[in-house]
Amino acid sequence: MFERKYPSTRLRRLRSSKYLRDITAESRLSKDDLIQPIFIKDINGYESVSTMPGISRVGLDVLLDEIKEIADLGIKCVAIFPVVDKEKKDEFGKESFNESNLACSAIKIIKKNFPEIIIIADVALDPYTSHGHDGLVKNNYVLNDETIEVLEKQALALAKAGADILAPSDMMDGRVGAIREALEKNNFQNTVILSYAAKFSSNFYGPFRDAVGSASNLGKESKSSYQMLTANSDEALHEVAMDINEGADIVMIKPGMPYLDVISKVKETFKIPTFAYQVSGEYSMIMLAIDNGLLEKKVMLESLLSFKRAGADAILTYAAKEISKELN
Fold it and tell me: pLDDT digits over 30-67, tens only?
């Protein structure tokens, strides 16, 4: 007679109740992991972003209301992105280092009223240039070293306004070292640099460019001469190593879910604080599927947990407010 041999290991035992599933979870998502991006615009009140469900541009008159809601939800960090008026853009991005510009004004307001909130400020010229590129352009080519000189000025203006973390997102070679040196020379030794170390030339950025008003400026132009080739992951490690050597405190991978392998490689290789950006295209794609009943609402939480599982220490996501409510 056949004698049944039962498995000695049954992995389903630890899945048999919610409590067991919770205490054996390898990765966890908390409100401390979430960073809320905010689009700032010179308007009164709020203005919906048509390509990003549930997201609005925020006027300075209601900025404190927005920050209070974020703080009350337990989110400790925001990332500021200015929507610059067309008349303030030029080919050199001079408005970027105006110490009274929209980004600096927003930072000052937040710091005065919510000093405990950590503020991340992007260092890049694309919101300020008439051509929509992240740097200065000559003969249809984005200049590297000349752009860095402007980025240094922008970084100092943002640091003076009170930004806790500067996030160079331009992908110019050597910009982290130049910004670090400028900060040291001007007594901003404690200002953190969060480098967009591996920012890929992705097609997932479309709704963001619409939100900040750079899409029409950029037109059909590509950023592939300075942002990373989407096929490369070993090169991402090279980029991260360079930025760490130049003084980056934190590195970021952008986009997020399509590049979970890169997040994992970076964290495993360097053991440095590693952030991920769930970019606008990822967010809008998921939200539109949820809003149209194609996916359950919990899919957003699942997508963010995948970043943690890959090794990300924190996540910039437009869903931060809504997800924090679920975590409550």
Answer: 999 999 999 999 999 999 999 999 999 999 999 999 99
pTM over 0.90: yes
Please spell the DSSP secondary structure of 221-286, one letter per residue.
---TTTSBPTT-SHHHHHHHHHHHHHT-SEEEEESSGGGHHHHHHHHHHH-S-EEEEE-HHHHHHH
3-state secondary structure of 82: strand
The question of whether 254 is a catalytic residue gets the answer yes
Single out the catalytic residue among 254, 265, 267, 308: 254
CATH of 28-327, one of 3.20.20.70, 2.60.40.1240, 3.90.550.10, 1.10.10.10: 3.20.20.70
Tokens representing residue 63 in the block: 């900025």
CA distance linking residue 22 with residue 33, whole number of Å: 18
d(CA 92, CA 235): 29
Q: Of 41, 89, 199, 265, which is the active-site residue? A: 199
